[in-house]
Specification:
631 residues; alpha/beta; 2 domains; 8-stranded mixed β-sheet; globular
Length: 631
């Protein structure tokens, strides 16, 4: 599988910055990125401009960003319908001659906050020069399948990978000319409880050792219990099955969902539905509501199950019933991909696991540990040539041994500028960072967009944090404790650019809720919010979210200080973290500093400042200037 998929990515590399015709086979006619709102749409469009300017995308491929309308959350099913409307408005009947890649990329990314501002679809991937982003992977990932598709829409999400091998003898395998064709992957029953599960008609005919097989689907289950999987006949009969190319599932197995395709007969149905019913006022899921309506055994019973619906709004049940009736007669075919692995990478733990620890996945995807970075000596003076993750490296220095905290391999460092004396643990990820002094990064850490320049004057914060001035003048190494997430974000405050470094323990659950009056009991940094307020001298009333009547979580809790400078922001964040971890009351005080939540940061983000910073860092690395970045 490694050789096959490496070839897939290598072929796509040929058309980065070139005409798509150079691929020598069909490619997407249109690509759509969905966005949660107009603000996120603007963020995406600006980043696409940068990618086109740098020749990182295939030419002659139109990429549209479609925002959800204002109002109630409409889900990715609603986003699919809105995207079809936008496509039809732009292309008219010509739309039905196109192969469309639809990537659901909206959302706040609460489980991976470093992607919250600029979006999961623009998250860095450790390969390539210039470095890949998830969008590049998505454009490349399905190229062999395009050959099998008629005109229609292929639906996927922004935070997962699919590694696969189609095998050699698959000329007779095609996507259905009508209705839906879904990709199915062998998984454990535990995985199936969190995904869609397919019930295959005549499962006795399934051949696990065949890389790719076309099967008919009786019905689609959505996050079923193991009991339901057994009852419905979704569980394969044998234990510990060995699938094609060495894929192995311990215990019982079932086939789970990932991406799916629908032909343009379905596009026309959904467009007619939109015209007849007007704008959606409730949440419709592309997997839960579209796919569960399919198959000869499908029933509408699921429309009353709202466990996966974030908000039950008026008209939800009626709309779900209409969608069921609209799609129920559409056929569904399965491409059973026995030689495939579906990998979700939308959480901090997954980010570390797959970029630092899973050697097999890294080999299959051609990922590296040291990608598009500039390593310097003596605090940025006379830096060596750029070492990147691809291209001829014969005249480039090898990573110094001091980059290792132990005999294990280096962690993952991407698109960053830092001294060679730095120590990066094997399970740490650094991205878009710039440090003028060596850093020592502990295990299970993520550092994103952090900056430290030792030669800058730091404001005294009205005399409340004088240690910062002293520390700035004497610091020789920055140390980051284990299990820490740090991400620096510029915001706009009263017409000025300010900085916020958000910090969490990797194990913190930003969605975990507590009663509105009990914010102090929320787990934070391995302890509780009340411990944080105690050591920083902060009033709990100032930390508690504004205008919350029922429940609170860390996402809306005002925990993070606002500062005038990015380096100052990072230092202050580290001081807060260390104070909590060591219970040093009085070591830091935040009484005169404005505190904001992650939700507030997203509202006040300074997009231009953030993109400009990354652009300057890009040019510094690319051009190998003999000076440290100046922002």
């Amino acid at each position: 599988m490694q050789k096959y998929f490496t070839n897939v990515l290598t072929r796509y590399e040929k058309i980065r910055g070139r005409d798509k015709e150079e691929l020598g086979s069909p490619f997407w006619d249109v690509v759509v990125l969905t966005a949660a709102d107009e603000a996120q749409k603007n963020v995406y469009e600006k980043q696409l401009e940068y990618k086109y300017q740098r020749h990182e995308l295939p030419l002659e491929v139109e990429i549209l960003v479609v925002a959800d309308p204002t109002g109630p959350k409409i889900g990715n099913g609603g986003s699919t319908i809105v995207s079809l409307e936008a496509l039809y408005e732009k292309f008219g009947e010509k739309l039905f001659e196109y192969r469309v890649l639809l990537i659901h990329a909206g959302g706040q990314s609460q489980r991976m906050p470093s992607a919250s501002v600029l979006g999961k679809i623009f998250s860095p991937i450790p390969r390539g020069n210039p470095i890949y982003q998830m969008l590049d992977i998505k454009l490349a990932m399905f190229c062999p399948l395009i050959l099998k598709m008629p005109k229609g829409v292929f639906v996927t999400c922004a935070d997962d990978f699919l590694v696969y091998n189609l095998g050699e003898n698959h000329d007779d395998i095609k996507f259905s000319e009508t209705g839906f064709t879904a990709l199915a992957h062998p998984s454990s029953l535990a995985v199936g409880t969190g995904h869609g599960v397919y019930v295959i008609q005549d499962s006795k005919k399934v051949k696990p050792n065949v890389p790719l097989q076309v099967c008919e689907c009786l019905e689609v289950l959505q996050k079923p219990s193991e009991v339901v999987m057994y009852k419905k006949g979704a569980v394969l009969r044998s234990n510990n099955l060995k699938f094609a190319n060495g894929i192995h599932v311990e215990g019982k197995a079932a086939y789970t969902d990932s991406s799916f395709f629908f032909a343009h007969d379905v596009s026309k149905k959904l467009l007619a539905f939109a015209e007849e019913n007007g704008p959606l006022s409730c949440e419709i899921d592309a997997y839960g509501d579209f796919l569960q309506a399919l198959g000869p055994r499908a029933t509408s019973d699921y429309i009353n199950n709202t466990s996966n619906v974030s908000t039950v709004t008026p008209g939800l049940y009626e709309t779900r019933k209409k969608v069921f009736n609209l799609l129920n007669k559409s056929n569904i075919t399965l491409l059973v991909m026995n030689c495939s692995k579906f990998i979700h990478i939308g959480t901090t733990k997954e980010y570390i696991e797959y970029f630092c620890c899973d050697d097999t996945f890294q080999a299959e995807m051609g990922l590296e540990k040291d990608v598009f970075n500039l390593w310097t000596k003596n605090g940025g003076q006379n830096p060596p040539a750029v070492r990147s993750g691809s291209g001829d490296t014969s005249d480039q220095p090898t990573p110094p041994k001091c980059l290792k905290l132990s005999d294990t391999s280096l962690g993952c460092v991407m698109h960053s500028y830092l001294p060679t004396e730095s120590c990066v643990s094997a399970t740490a990820v650094i991205e878009f960072c710039s440090f003028s002094v060596p850093v020592k990064v502990g295990q299970c850490c993520i550092l994103s967009s952090c900056e430290f320049k030792a030669d800058i004057r730091v404001k005294d914060l009205e005399g409340k944090t004088p240690f910062l001035v002293e520390y700035m003048n004497t610091v020789q190494t920055l140390e980051f404790p284990n299990s820490l997430f740090l991400h620096t974000i510029p915001i706009r405050e009263e017409g000025q650019t300010k900085f916020v470094t958000v910090f969490f323990d990797i194990k913190d659950n930003l969605k975990k809720e507590a009663p509105a009056g009990d914010v102090k009991r929320l787990p934070f940094l391995g302890k509780l919010v009340e411990d944080y307020t105690a050591v920083t001298g902060t009033d709990l009333a100032l930390v508690a979210p504004d205008n919350v009547d029922t429940k609170v979580n860390l996402w809306y809790t005002n925990l993070f200080p606002v500062t005038d400078d990015a380096s100052e922001s990072l230092l202050l964040a580290l001081k807060c973290v260390n104070a909590v971890k060591t219970d040093k009351t009085g070591a830091i005080t935040l009484t005169s500093v404005r505190l904001v939540s992650m939700a507030t940061v997203l509202k006040e983000k300074d997009l231009e400042a953030m993109l400009n910073r990354r652009n300057v860092l890009y040019n510094t690395i690319k051009c190998d200037r003999n000076v440290s970045p100046q922002y």
